[in-house]
Design a protein that fits this description.
single chain; mainly alpha; Penicillin binding protein transpeptidase fold; 3% strand
């Protein structure tokens, strides 16, 4: 009986060591990205793989731009639509999570997520689209890492550059050129609000740019933008 028990303990210890090493690997990437820009993300790589299954020559539209070269209109629009308390919270909006839970409970299905910008960035950078039992726990750990070592402006800068905005369209610069033929620095308030309105389902809105509800949501974001506090 001792041998199997000893083997089991060795396996448990080995798995724990691998888990700890993986966390260090994640943390090392985040520390590196304080000064250096990520060239891609796990979500971008997943999407490219899906696209190349259909067309081997498919490429992503993506171009990094520094924070000052992105319109404040877009920054305010995203804060207003995705995470109004971004500059104040430490990674999690507990009130928003509670409201999302109550809304989902009332509807009997998941219709709201309550994820902050920091949580969305954690998922985009490191996690696959596959839902696993430990995925949410890993998202929480990565979010805490991001909030611990990066300031809000850097978190938001990376988010603005890796967020999905259509089929193969990633980041503010690619989105501005794809939809409006301008640079990210030139986006008007209405254009920015429209891009922010697309975030929950960007591939759908890329195909259906006059979808019902898009205009209503755009103007709702426009109304909220003056109160949005950006880092």
């Amino acid at each position: 009986m001792k041998a199997p028990r000893s083997l089991f303990m060795r396996i448990v210890i080995a798995l724990f060591a691998l888990l700890v090493l993986y966390q260090f690997w994640l943390f090392a990437h985040i520390v590196w990205w304080i000064k250096f820009d990520p060239a891609s993300s796990a979500f971008m790589e997943d999407r490219l793989e899906v696209m190349q299954d259909k067309n081997p020559k498919a490429e992503l539209k993506h171009q990094w731009v520094d924070y000052p070269k992105i319109s404040n209109n877009l920054k305010r629009a995203l804060i207003a639509s995705e995470d109004a308390k971004f500059v104040d919270h430490e990674g999690f909006d507990w009130e928003g999570i509670q409201k999302a839970y109550e809304k989902n409970l009332k509807k009997g299905k998941i219709v709201a997520g309550g994820s902050t910008i920091s949580q969305q960035l954690a998922k985009n950078l490191f996690l696959s689209t596959k839902r696993t039992p430990w995925r949410k726990g890993e998202e929480i750990v990565i979010t805490l890492m991001l909030e611990t070592v990066m300031d809000k402006q850097r978190i938001f800068e990376i988010y603005l550059n890796v967020i999905e905005w259509g089929n193969g369209v990633f980041g503010a610069e690619a989105a501005a050129r794809h939809y409006f033929g301008v640079s990210a620095s030139q986006l008007s308030a209405e254009q920015a609000a429209r891009l922010a309105a697309m975030v929950p389902n960007p591939r759908f809105y890329d195909r259906n740019r006059q979808a019902p509800g898009m205009l209503r949501k755009t103007y709702l974001i426009l109304d909220r933008m003056p109160d949005a506090e950006i880092p």
